Structure formats: C-alpha cells, structure tokens
Amino acid sequence: MKRPEDLIIGSFHLPKVSVRPLIPSPPSSKVSFPRSQHLLWQLVKRDWGILSGPWATVRVPLERIVLEGEQHNLVLDQAYDYIATYGLTHLANFAVLSTGTDPITPSTTGLTGEFIRTSRDQNGSTGTRTVSRISDGVYRVSLVREFIESEVVGRNITQWGFSPVGTSGNNLVVAESFRDGNGDPIVITPEPDQRLRLIYAYQFSIGPVVAVPASIDIVGLGTFLGKYVLTKSDGGSGGSYPDLVSTEIAITGSVIDSGGNPSVAYKNVYLHSARLPTDYGDTTVDTNVLASKWPGLQSYVLGSYSRSTNPVTFLTNEGNGTILTIGLGSYWGGGFRFVLDPGYGIVKDNLHKLTLGPFTVTWSPIE
Asked: Could you give the CA distance from residue 165 to residue 176 in angstroms, rounded to a whole number?
C-alpha cells in the first residue's frame, strides 16, 4: 500500500484590518484597541415622589443627579495582556474606587487606597453590559456600575478603575483620577443619601471588513491565491455578532457571549467544498463542510499581544474532496473565511493528510 503523504500549509494567519497588500501575502489579523476611552460619573440622590391617578395615589422612586462629569481614561499596559484571557467584550467588569493620589501611568497595575469594587449595575443586577456594532467591524461595549450609599458615604474618593475580576489588587485594565469639566483632578465625598454611578464605554475594531487578496503555499502543490474576510455569518450557531465571537475564539479559545448565546460550534477550523462569498455582510449558512476540528491555542506569551492556534491536521479519512474555503468559526461557513480564487482548489484524497499552520491574531493600542 502506498504510504500516505502530508500536505502542509505553512503559517496561516487571520486577516489584518488595516493592511491592503499590493502583492498577495499570507493573511494576518490585528485588533485595534484605543488607549483613550470614555467615562461618565454621577452622584445620584434617590428619593420618593407621589403619583396620583384616577383610582389611587402611590409613592414612586425618583432620582436626581447632584453632580456629574465626563472624562477620558487610560487603558493600562497590562490590559493588553489580559485580552488573551478575558477577550474584548468582558475585559472590564468590576468598577474600583480609591482614595489614593499616586500618579497613574500606562504601567500602573492597581490603585493604592482601593477600598471597594463592584459588578452591580443601577438596577441591582451584576455583570451586565451592552455590546453594539456601531459600524462595520467597530464595536462599543457599555456598562453601568453603581456604589450604594453605605459603600461610599463620607469617603474622599479620588480615583477609579475597572478590572475583569472581583479580587482587589494589581489587576486593573483601566484607571484614572476623577476630574471636573476642566480636566482637573477632584475629590468626591458622597453624602449619606448619595450613590456613585460609573457609566463606562470602550471601543475597538476587528476585521478585515473588506476582502483582502492573500496566498498560501502548500508543500508539493505550490501557491494558491484567494481572498480573506471576516463575515457576519453565524454558520448556524447563533449569536448576535458572529464576527466578534470568531475573533474572541482566536484570542482566548473560548466562546464569549457578546449577545444571542452563541454555541460551542464556533470553535472550529473548517474545510469547505463551496467557494463562499467574501463579503463582510454575508450571512450565508452552507452545510457542505468537508471537515472541521478545533486544535486549541498555543500558550500566550506576556507582552506579545498575539495569539495563535495550534497547527491542525486533517487525516487521510478527513476532509477529502476539493477544498475551496478554509475558515475559522462556526463550521457551516461562519466567521473568518479564506476563499480560493476561481481556478484554484486544493484536492485532498484518502492518501494524503493536510496540515494547516497556526491561525494568528494580534492586537495593539492606538495612542
């Protein structure tokens, strides 16, 4: 019997959002995460009012904003390492308050004088957030965190931050001093009937949202040309934002719920027999998958701001046929797609194995 041969594809990367190469090159991906994000803080006084109707008079809760301010904040260096563990949509969860005055720089990891943190919102629920796509590949995450009267009364509060975890310490992803409308540091001292509310929003971009020419080399077969793109297709696996789910899988190895309860079926590198569309807005679900499997991720290296899958091998009895699309995401054509150009196709049979090199995604701050 003839010994099975190996078809090997070298390093194979997810798409880079900002690169438009004139000469096709292997796909690569980059998430852009600005250092400057946005906070609205409010001192809120809750009271009761009277509502009169034709049948009854009832007491209703009211609230009045006593003082508020809008400001930017600093995303810390270690936040970009934490992305590899917590992803993008759940990076900020617990709000942190401090009475400290130490300078805050990009290398800050925690706040001296921290005295409390919470994941509770203004309605008493915990861990809530709103994820929205504000344009192609651009996302905003908004969350409200509120400290009740007994937690802040009489405190001279000077600084705030956010962390993905509830344990106090040097694990912040953002931090800043409270500031007034002129940008000057201030001290907030809530009265016994006042709550402190933090309304935080951050933004990032993924992609590419426009198909980019690329090429892959296969040992023994040569160079294959195609295009790659991130799509809105959920591949039949649910979720409000399939492109974001697929990106976060490539970063963390986990299915992170950014809305719509996406299923674990997103965790796949797949081979497809159809030449799927290369439009970001495409939502095609096509069941003609030849094979799929999840190889897991390589260990994250601190400071690299980069994560790769392990190479994945399809055995002699897997993925046989003509491969026209290679993807990462839900295996019925979801998420990221590398689609071979017309005239190109990878023919695999039961005498060959096919090994795909690592898919890689990188992220970086925008100053």
From this structure: 18
